[in-house]
Amino acid sequence: MILGERDPEVKAGVQDVDMSGQTVLVTGSTNGLGRQAAVAMGRLGADVIVHGRDQAAGESAVQELEGLGSDAQFVSADYTDVTAVREMAAEVETAVDEIDVLCNNAGGLFEDGERTDLGVDLNFHINHLSPFLLTTELLDTLASDARVITTASIGHRVSSLNLDALIEPGPFSEWAAYCQSKLANIHFSNELARRLDNAGSDVTSNSFHPGIIPGSEFSRALPGPIQQFGDLLDDVPLTDSPEDGAATMAYLAASGDVEGDTGKYYARCRKRRPAPDARDETAQRDLWKRSADLLGIEEPLADYA
Ligand SMILES: NC(=O)c1ccc[n+]([C@@H]2O[C@H](COP(=O)([O-])OP(=O)(O)OC[C@H]3O[C@@H](n4cnc5c(N)ncnc54)[C@H](OP(=O)(O)O)[C@@H]3O)[C@@H](O)[C@H]2O)c1
Fold first, then answer.
1. What is the domain-level CATH number for residue 247?
2. What is the Å distance from ligand 1's center to 32 Cα?
3. What are this entry's molecular-function GO terms (predicted)?
4. For ligand 1, which residues put their CB under 6 angstroms from it?
């Protein structure tokens, strides 16, 4: 844990970075660590696009950012809905000239066994397929040196990717689906990094684990008594806060230390080695192609695999 309740940008040591003139899109920034990171980047001077489904929470985040002098706006899209994500990408393209930082953060741990309209597991769809779609739709809107940042999880370490189980109907635990979707986040981030690099682009793509944050998504998904226990952990100094989680996002968005770094995985503002499964390039290429197939789109950056 990074001790003390300092602001994320201070925890990350980027409080003196000037992000004015930069446009940042943080998905899942109505709540949790996404909101903390969005506001932190607003304090650094960035213009921020807030995303989520909750209109009231989105407007309150925009108000907070405007109070800091940020030119902020809210876009709403349900990540279970492919059309909504496409419309969100079109709305963003119209609203801004360029995106300097795209943070793929929306997500969480969702109900057991639920399938989306595409017939795939809910965790896999919200946590992986939608950010894949949004990012590939926005490729032409990214600044030439943009940073794409994906919120993964340490949970990736306890799973191997079984795409057939995520795609075919059948019993599947929410925890297994969640961990696989977070492994998919690292695969996606690394495959994007490789293809952009092969294309000669200076856009970078990195992923990170934000920490274990009681009172946030994990404890909300637990049964009542365990949830209350989870809430108690808020006061335990060995767990992380949303500010801690947001610190690594702010670090990857703003720090000069990571300039040019791509295809890397971070935790607590430091480069880490992800699990062996997360370094499997064949699995990354396969996931990329199958994600495009599932969404019924042409394989993005197909010439640069
Ligand atoms: N908390 C942890 O301990 C932990 C650990 C490892 C990784 N993570 C990852 O960190 C990220 C943020 O988690 P958090 O803890 O900050 O969670 P959170 O407090 O529950 O916030 C989740 C955000 O995602 C958005 N979201 C959720 N479902 C959505 C949907 N169907 N469509 C569009 N937006 C949706 C929410 O917005 P609306 O409610 O407005 O839709 C909210 O802004 C997630 O990717 C999570 O997997 C968290």
1. 3.40.50.720
2. 7
3. oxidoreductase activity
4. 28-34, 52-54, 57, 78-80, 105-108, 126, 151, 153, 209-210, 212-213, 216-218
Give me ligand 1 centre to Cα 212, in Å: 13
- Residue bearing tokens 């079109």: 90
Catalytic residues: 178
The whole domain housing 187 covers 10-211+241-296
5 in a domain, yes or no? no
Q: Is residue 64 part of a domain?
A: yes
**Both tokens of residue 207?**
């992923």
Residue 227 bridge partners (DSSP): none
From the alpha carbon of 76, which atom of ligand 1 is closest? 33
Q: Which tops the pLDDT comparison, 237 or 25? A: 25
Total tally of structural domains belonging to the chain: 1
The 10s digit of each residue's pLDDT in 67-120 is: 999 999 999 999 999 999 999 999 999 999 999 999 999 999 997 678 899 989
Is 229 within the bounds of a domain?
Answer: no
